[in-house]
Design a protein that fits this description.
There is one protein chain. This protein is α/β, with parallel strands linked by helices and 473 residues long. It folds into 2 domains: 209 residues, Immunoglobulin-like, CATH 2.60.40; 257 residues, Aminopeptidase (3-Layer(aba) Sandwich), CATH 3.40.630. Helix content is 36%, strand content 22%. The chain is built from 14 helices and 15 strands. The strands form 3 sheets. The protein has a 6-stranded mixed beta sheet with strand order 11-10-12-15-13-14, sandwiched between helices. It has a 5-stranded mixed beta sheet with strand order 5-1-2-9-8. Strands 3-4-7-6 form a 4-stranded antiparallel beta sheet. Helix 6 links the parallel strand 10 and strand 11. It is elongated. The protein starts with a helix and ends with a helix. It binds zinc ion. Zinc ion binds next to loops.
């Protein structure tokens, strides 16, 4: 079934050819399509616009009482399927290829505002509107998804039920594509997310069914530093590159053992890998998740301790995060490798949209990771940070960097060299990975829980008993 993983795969493939615009579940690519229609004379994904005669116009949004309704005028009737995705909560409407002759930014911005103060500009197209556009709909996108397929992707302002998604045909009236939603409690929404997977016929249309059902999401586990780059040094025997390698191996083994994932280590021995190559490994493997493991020092403050999860951002969340990213980004220089800066980035709308969706998935996983790691280990006071880490810059692979702790802290340092402590935390990280993929229906919640999940449950119980101990550390 189409899932986050599949979007990433599709997105990456098309992204790689720079010719399509299947965007990780984002379906906005009208400007791209328009450009291609004019310029393209061939190529693998020259869209056959309106080849099937379906043109959509209009695009009206209204809410009455509990009901939020999105409608488009269309040329004729066709099959429509919808399904739900959680965290972030979305409704995806699957359509045959539709030529949307509609302002592509109509669903991304607040309604043209009589109320907007004069001289003030509203949010740019693509920016997240502060308030829902109408009812339960925060924003929506539509457009080409894959050969023969278009999509409408609706961002929900609150959990909602898909009341109906059909093409309404009435004698004497133009057919209308109607999508109706109404609010629903979160537990019921999450239950529907599991149930409301798209039909087989939709799933099978773009990619051979076998490749979907058999594909396991690829998780890349990246042990920081290595070889000539030691990373940080703590007390005797506490070298970052060795600690994180042991941890990464343990985590990868747990994920492999679950049978749910294909796991790749960027390094499984004490060798140096340039930062861009780590990113490349993830992208070429078609990874759905990249987890980089580190354990640094903060020379100027031995009091700073606890685990921290970083995501990439153009602007650092704080000075310490910026400093750490600078330090990590020096890895190549430490090893005497001329990195040549960031991996080649194509600044276009396709790139920006892909990256935006990827970053939102990275943030979802970062939050999940903090929840799980926080149950078994001490978290940093400011456990969720962001900065410009080069190793997290794959535009199409959700990526986080987990700082297990600080080798400059005595407490952290003794944890980091403890095999039992690393086992426990690796188990929690594996459970967070499970949670991340189960939430988007990539792996089944009903499958056997991993050993990691079982261990986490055990540790939940012991954590309560150790609460006071943790608070004192
Ligand atoms: Zn490091």
């Amino acid at each position: 079934m189409p899932s986050a993983h599949e979007y990433f795969s599709i997105g990456r493939r098309l992204f790689a050819t720079a010719a399509g615009c299947a965007l990780l579940g984002l379906a906005v690519c009208q400007p791209v399509l328009a450009a291609q229609t004019v310029a393209a004379t061939g190529g693998p994904f020259t869209p056959a616009l309106a080849a099937n005669g379906i043109i959509a116009t209009g695009g009206r949004l209204e809410s009455t009482g509990e009901l939020t309704r999105l409608t488009f005028d269309v040329e004729r009737s066709f099959d429509v399927h919808g399904f739900l995705l959680a965290d972030p909560n979305r409704v995806v409407i699957e359509l045959p290829e539709v030529n949307f002759q509609v302002d592509p930014t109509i669903g991304l911005r607040a309604p043209v505002a009589a109320t907007r103060p004069k001289g003030k500009r509203g949010p740019l197209a693509g920016a997240e509107p502060a308030k829902p556009l109408a009812g339960v709909i925060r924003s929506y996108r539509f457009g080409y998804f894959a050969p023969g397929k278009s999509r409408i992707v609706i961002d929900l302002a609150e959990p909602a039920r898909l009341v109906r998604a059909v093409v309404e045909t009435q004698p004497g009236r133009r057919p209308r594509l109607v999508v109706e939603l109404s609010p629903i409690a979160r537990p019921a929404f999450l239950a529907s997310v599991q149930k409301a997977a798209p039909s087989q016929s939709v799933a099978a249309s773009a990619i051979p069914a076998a490749s979907i059902s058999q594909a396991r999401p690829v998780v890349v586990v990246d042990a920081g530093h290595g070889g000539v780059d030691d990373g940080a040094h703590g007390g005797p025997g506490a070298v970052e590159k060795d600690i994180v390698l042991e941890f990464a191996r343990n985590l990868a083994a747990r994920l492999d053992k679950s049978g749910r994932y294909k796991t790749i280590l960027t390094r499984s021995t004490d060798i140096f890998i340039p930062l861009n190559d780590r990113v490349k490994i993830a992208r070429e493997a078609g990874a759905s998740l990249f987890v980089s493991i580190h354990a640094d020092t903060l020379a100027d403050d031995p009091q700073v301790a606890g685990a921290t999860v970083y995501t990439v951002a153009d602007q650092a969340s704080d000075v310490a995060a910026a400093r750490l990213a600078d330090k990590e980004n020096q890895s190549d220089a430490v090893a005497g490798v001329d990195s040549g800066g960031d991996a080649g980035e194509v600044a276009d709308i396709l790139f920006d949209l892909t990256r935006r969706e990827t970053r939102s998935y990275s943030q979802v996983f970062a939050r999940t990771l903090i929840d799980y790691v926080g149950e078994v280990a001490r978290l940093n006071k400011n456990s969720r940070r962001a900065a410009g880490f080069r190793v997290l810059k794959a535009p199409d692979v959700p990526s986080v960097l987990l700082e297990l702790g600080y080798l400059s802290s005595q407490g952290d340092s003794s944890n980091l060299v403890s095999v039992a402590w690393r086992e426990k935390v690796a188990g929690a990280v594996a459970s967070a990975v499970d949670r991340f993929f189960v939430a988007r229906g990539v792996v089944s919640a009903s499958a056997q829980p991993t050993e990691a999940a079982g261990q986490l449950k055990e540790s939940f119980n012991s954590v309560a008993a150790r609460g006071a101990d943790r608070a004192d550390r």
